[in-house]
Amino acid sequence: MTRKNSRNKPPPRRIAAELVIDRLGTKGDGIGRLDSGETVYVPYALPGEYVRVALGGRRGEGVEGELDTILRPAADRVEPECLHFGQCGGCALQHLDVARYRALKLARISSALTRQGVTGAAINDLLVSPKGTRRRVTFSAESGRSPRQPSVVVGFNRRASHALVDLDECSVTRPTIVALLPALRSLLVAILPSGGQADIAVTEASSGLDVLIEATAALDLAAREHLSEFASEARLARLMWRAPGGAAEPIAIRDPVFMRFGPRDVAIPPAAFLQATEFGENAIVQAVLSALPAEGRVADLFAGCGTLSFPIAAAGHVVLAVEGDEAALAALSRAARQGGDRISVERRDLERSPLEAAELNGFAAVVVDPPRIGAKAQSRALAYSTVPVVIAVSCDPESFARDAAILIEGGYRLCWVQPIDQFLWSAHVELVALFRRELP
Ligand SMILES: C[S@@+](CC[C@H](N)C(=O)[O-])C[C@H]1O[C@@H](n2cnc3c(N)ncnc32)[C@H](O)[C@@H]1O
């Protein structure tokens, strides 16, 4: 949560340069070259554009370039939606037209696969989450240093910076979450010390807004009263508080916080992992269900709170849900017990201790939905198994392609990839992919 304070540093020496942007990088930044051949990364510039930039610090082998003037705009440049675009680090691609945007996200997947020598897979069209549907965000806040004029900035980080953008609007986030910002600002003005910082995780659960504030502030009686008033006026389902490194403490719980997964309401822990949009979650669930065999036991690995386990069980399968996070697994397990679902659970670190081939054999299908780093160890174990169907859900094309190559080397065929966009106007892309065992 600690952000570096760059206010007192002298500004870096700025050298201007003019260049043509050749391509977009994986973070959505324009990339061009100086006459010297040095690579320059230019956020908010598009391929084909001729731009004037201020050269900044080193970035890998190249150098950062801050866009100063677009001397010749690209034909596919469009007017961005949000007044904060160009400052806020949340969106990198609002200035790109829809066709080029979709092509860029699909190319991230196909080029990652090509780099791993995986060719010939059918890549379906991108399913894009609509505007204003992100239901899980973490805002940052920092209070001003003037005791006479208390103020707090609440928003997202600026592009490649520790400084914050004070958000008035956000085109990608649920309006119910954006509407919380003025009240959040007033609350933090009252409780943060001068120069104090906070991170505020907000989730729109099925039962209402769930907020976890992590802050460097003393929770005295006055602060508790402010927090409780804020929770009541904003009609939050739950407000939790955490000092950095401490445990989350409940401040106000109006309603049980649950998410509906398939037929089941799961009481989720604070700041639990959830798919970023309801649209994205539905797209992932539908793609996974469509890839499952008609019957047989299914292992749901990296199961979280059961986003996939419950719909898979509702489709008639016996499910083993494996997850490393204790609180998430406890939530899944409790809901499964209460609902009488045929879901058993196991807590396990799947990176250090993946399910081995002998444990995997006998499952009709295995679903793997790891964090960004992917599931290298688990993919290696699957490569030695006889499991007929593996369904990969991934939020990172690079680690997915690496794991796909491991599975293919082990005798699987990549049948199709369904790209899904949950992080509108960012460079991220997610996917579901079906692998079938061809060779024993
Ligand atoms: C991308 S989330 C997917 C969760 C769930 N499938 C869903 O759709 O909501 C990845 C999950 O993997 C879990 N995880 C991360 N590293 C793990 C590990 N080494 N072993 C087991 N689970 C892990 C996280 O706690 C998280 O719940």
Notes on the protein architecture:
The protein folds into 3 domains: 1-77, Nucleic acid-binding proteins (OB fold (Dihydrolipoamide Acetyltransferase, E2P)); 103-130 and 274-437, Rossmann fold, CATH 3.40.50.150; 136-258, OB fold (Dihydrolipoamide Acetyltransferase, E2P) (Beta Barrel). Helices cover 24% and strands 31% of the residues. Helix 3 packs antiparallel against helix 4 (221-233). The model is unreliable at 4-10 (pLDDT under 50). It has 440 residues and is of the alpha/beta class. The N and C termini lie far apart (49 Å). The structure holds S-adenosylmethionine. S-adenosylmethionine (SAM) binds at residues 273-275, 302-304, 307-308, 323-325, 328, 349-351, 369-371, 395.
What's the layout of helices and strands?
Blueprint: E1 15-24, E2 30-33, E3 39-42, E4 50-59, E5 62-72, H1 98-115, E6 122-123, E7 127-128, E8 136-143, E9 152-157, E10 164-166, H2 175-178, H3 181-191, E11 197-205, E12 208-215, H4 221-233, E13 238-242, E14 249-253, E15 258-261, E16 264-267, H5 278-291, E17 298-301, H6 309-314, E18 319-323, H7 326-339, E19 343-347, H8 357-360, E20 365-368, H9 376-383, E21 389-394, H10 397-409, E22 412-421, E23 430-437
Helix pairs in contact: 1-10, 3-4, 9-10
Bound molecules: S-adenosylmethionine (SAM).
